[in-house]
Amino acid sequence: MAIDKSGTRVRQMFSEIAGNYDRMNHLLSMNIDKYWRWRTVKIVPPTGDSPILDVCTGTGDLALAYYKAAGGKVQVEATDFCPEMLEVGEVKKQKLGINGQVRFQEADTQHLPFEDDTFQIVSVAFGLRNVADTDLGLKEMARVCRPGGKVAVLEFSQPRYQPFRGVYQFYFKNILPRVGQALARNKQDAYKYLPDSVGEFPHGEALAERMRGAGLKDVFFKPFTFGVATLYVGTK
Q1: How many whole angstroms separate alpha carbon 6 and alpha carbon 131?
Q2: CA 205, CA 221: separation in Å to the nearest integer?
Q3: What is the DSSP string of 101-167?
Q4: Are the CB atoms for 207 and 190 separated by under 8 Å?
Q5: What contacts 150, CB < 8 A, 6 or more positions away?
Q6: What Cα–Cα distance (Å) separates residue 37 from each residue in 32, 107, 164?
Q7: Tens of pLDDT along 91-147?
């Protein structure tokens, strides 16, 4: 049975765990999530002075990584439809002394409030699988990307090779949900939703083909950490 990815359910789930979101991500991934974002920015770096958009930004880690990579000289827009997550991002931004160069705003990735052909990079980290309509989300990301710009999708995936695949799947399906739920109690079972949503979401060539269907060209993907996460990149 398909998992419930309705906007109401997903928004409520992330609002409940917003205060623990960063701590839990770093703990459960053993801080490897920071490395994955670092690699993303290295592979899809900012160039020139056109703005950057990070959708489903959560607490803004990838948006802030792009701000740093651009030396604070490029406007970074960061959108999410969960205001509680954005509030955490605002606190992080203030602690870094960032003013208007990074702007958090509430918005649904399926209906982005930006003009066509605006951003040099449109990125998303571990958020596309939470969008109710994956294809619509990708089309919106492509729409607001400027011609020649890049759409970058960093997402969890399925390791291919044994014995790592078996060990990882046992941890991901049995250990992670129990630890996550115990440390970040929430009514929506967010850490059970995580492996369920990853298992249901297309990965590898299947997601690359969805990106091509959204109008992107020269799509390639690069697995990280034995395929636990994968970066997908397409050109507008």
Answers
A1: 8
A2: 8
A3: TEEEEE--TTS--S-SS-EEEEEEES-GGGSSSHHHHHHHHHHHEEEEEEEEEEEE----STTHHHH
A4: no
A5: 44, 120, 121, 122, 233, 234, 235, 236
A6: 9, 22, 22
A7: 999 999 998 899 999 999 999 999 999 999 999 999 999 999 999 999 999 999 999
